[in-house]
Amino acid sequence: MLLCHTVGVRRSTPLLNDHEHRNNPLVLRFNGLLALMRHKPLDMPPSGVGPEDTVLEIGPGTGNLTMKLLEVAKRVYAVEVDKRMVEVLGNRVSESGFREKVTIISKDALKADFPEFDLVVANIPYCISSPLVAKFVFGGYKFRSATLLVQKEFATRLLANPGDSEFNRLAVNVKLVADVEHVMNVSKRDFVPVPKVDSSVVTIRLKSEVPDVDLNEWWAFTKTCFSKKNKTLGATFRQKKKVAELLNLSTVTCSDEEDVVEADDGDVSDDEDDGENVIGAGGNLFKEKLVGILRDAGLEDKRPSKLPNEELMYLLALFNKAGIFFHDKEKPRDINASFADL
Predict the structure, then answer these.
(1) Scanning 159, 216, 290, 302, which has its CA 20 to 30 A from the CA of 1?
(2) pLDDT tens digit sequence for 209-252
(3) Alpha carbons 15 and 34: distance in angstroms, whole number
(4) Does residue 80 have a known ligand-binding role?
(5) What pLDDT band is residue 17 in, cutting at 50, 70 and 90?
(6) Looking at domain 46-206, what is its CATH homologous superfamily?
(7) Fold observed for domain 215-339
(8) Pfam families from the xrefs (predicted)?
(9) Is 173 annotated as a binding residue?
């Protein structure tokens, strides 16, 4: 497969006129965003695009990759938020004779409802990489693979495994439902102009079988565990603010529950010795229940960054069985919000 791509650099200069464009065909300027195309596409391993496939392309820009896809795919849905690029892309596919095979969706990819598709190809804006990947793997879509050009640092985090220094909540969540493969690195010198960071190409494939777990609970649970990923779980679950938060969400009853005082917004101490005068006797009983579950599971002194998903799911099941929950059931499911800070 050939992966063509663009890179944007902010400029305050006006749009190029027709004469400038004809004399510099590699340059287009859209509302202050200067996009320069590479002189040649990246050589990519075949991604299996066939004549019966529908491809979802995110960030087509002026359509370099779109044109290649239209030569082999049955249909392409191109999602582009920049209306200037939408206009250029529309004109380009019309002139090529492919207009009937492409649908241009002029919307923010995070807000758009995607039609059914078989494959994804995306040059993802780095600022929305996490929520967009989450939308693909948790949004209920069924596809064979997603080939993504992302920032190299993001790819490293996405590919990380338990025990790696980069292992994080993003990898934990994505790998619950998908397999991630590193395809190739792309040097920043392959772009014109040269950006500040290198890129990588990764492929994501949905797993045929996924664990039977409440995703809202799982996302909230892993957010708690990885809030300080290098702290032990025992230390994390002793924090007074976390104890008060979980007590409010859970169905556990403590004999002195009426004495519980929720930690205020300014109380962000990580001290393990909370003291009864802070969260009340009921809160301290609840804290001991939390720590007791960790201790019985043999995970009190473990760090989440070292644990595989199987052990984390086991721990979540123990908490839930004891009536301890992590997600506010009154709040609707929001994939973007759950992954915006990753």
Answers:
(1) 159
(2) 999 999 999 999 999 999 988 899 999 999 999 999 999 888 65
(3) 9
(4) yes
(5) very low
(6) Vaccinia Virus protein VP39 (3.40.50.150)
(7) Helicase, Ruva Protein; domain 3 (1.10.8)
(8) RrnaAD
(9) no
